[in-house]
Write a structure and sequence with these properties.
The chain is an alpha+beta fold. The protein contains nine helices and four strands, in the order βαβαββααααααα. It has a four-stranded mixed beta sheet, with helices on one face. α1 links the parallel β1 and β2. α1 packs antiparallel against α7, α4 runs parallel beside α7 and α6 crosses α8. The chain is globular. The two termini are about 30 Å apart. It holds the Pfam family GST_C. This is Glutathione S-transferase family protein. Belongs to the GST superfamily. InterPro entries: Glutathione-S-Trfase_C-like, Glutathione-S-Trfase_C_sf, Glutathione_S-Trfase, Glutathione_S-Trfase_N, GST_C, Thioredoxin-like_sf.
C-alpha cells in the first residue's frame, strides 16, 4: 500500500491526502514532523535529504515535493480529469500548481507565522503589512481567474489546481486580518465544501 509520511496538520501533507481520496487511492498515512516521528534521522533523510514532509513510498518508489506527488498520484490512477493528458490542458493545470508553490506560498511567509501562529520572532509590523499586501495580491489573481472561468481554477472542471489552491486559500481565509471582498472565490469555496475530501483535509479547522 502507498505510504504517506507526514503529519496531517501539514498543509502540504493534506494536499496529498486530498488527492489520494479524489483519485480513489488507498494509503497508509504515518505521522512525521514536529511533535511526531523525527524527519532529522539518517533513515528519513535517505528518503528526503531536505528532511521535510510529505514523502511517499510506493512499492519502493520514493518521491518528495507535494505538488510533484499530486501529479504522480493523478497519473498513477489514470485520472486525466485531475491532470489532463493533452499538453496544453495539462500545462494550464500545472502552471497554477507551480504558481501556488512559488508565488502564492512566498506571499504569506511572514504574515502567516506572525498572525496565525503568533510567532514572536515575526513582529516587524512593516513586514507584516507588506506580507498582507502580497498575499491579497495573489488572492486577487485567483479571484480574477475564477471570474474568467466561472467555475474552477483551470476551467470548467475540478483539477489538481483546485486542490493545491483550495488549501492555500483556506489558509488565507483563516488568518486573522481584514480580507477584501472576493465573490468568485466565495462561490468556488462553497463548491469545494461539497467535496467530502476537502472537508476532511482542507476546510477542517487546520491552517
Amino acid at each position: 500500500m502507498l505510504r504517506i509520511l507526514g503529519k496531517k496538520s501539514s498543509i502540504n501533507v493534506r494536499k496529498v491526502l486530498w488527492t489520494c481520496e479524489e483519485a480513489g487511492i488507498d494509503y497508509l498515512q504515518e505521522d512525521y514532523g514536529s511533535g511526531f516521528a523525527s524527519t532529522q534521522t539518517p533513515e528519513f533523510k535517505a528518503l528526503n535529504p531536505n528532511a521535510m514532509v510529505p514523502v511517499i513510498v510506493d512499492e519502493g518508489f520514493v518521491l518528495w515535493e507535494s505538488n510533484s506527488i499530486c501529479r504522480y498520484l493523478a497519473r498513477k490512477a489514470c485520472r486525466d480529469d485531475l491532470l489532463p493528458l493533452e499538453a496544453q490542458a495539462a500545462a494550464n493545470v500545472e502552471h497554477w500548481m507551480d504558481w501556488q508553490a512559488s508565488e502564492f506560498n512566498n506571499a504569506w511567509r511572514y504574515a502567516f507565522p506572525a498572525l496565525a501562529r503568533k510567532n514572536p520572532a515575526f513582529n516587524d509590523q512593516n513586514a507584516i503589512a507588506n506580507g498582507i499586501t502580497e498575499w491579497n495580491h495573489c488572492i486577487d489573481i485567483v479571484e480574477q481567474q475564477l471570474q474568467r472561468t466561472g467555475a474552477w481554477v483551470a476551467g470548467d472542471t475540478f483539477t489538481l489546481a483546485d486542490i493545491v489552491l483550495g488549501l492555500s486559500v483556506n489558509r488565507w481565509k483563516m488568518t486573522p486580518f481584514p480580507h477584501p471582498d472576493v465573490p468568485a472565490i466565495y462561490v468556488w469555496f462553497e463548491k469545494l465544501n461539497q467535496r467530502p475530501a476537502f472537508l476532511r483535509h482542507g476546510n477542517n479547522g487546520m491552517v
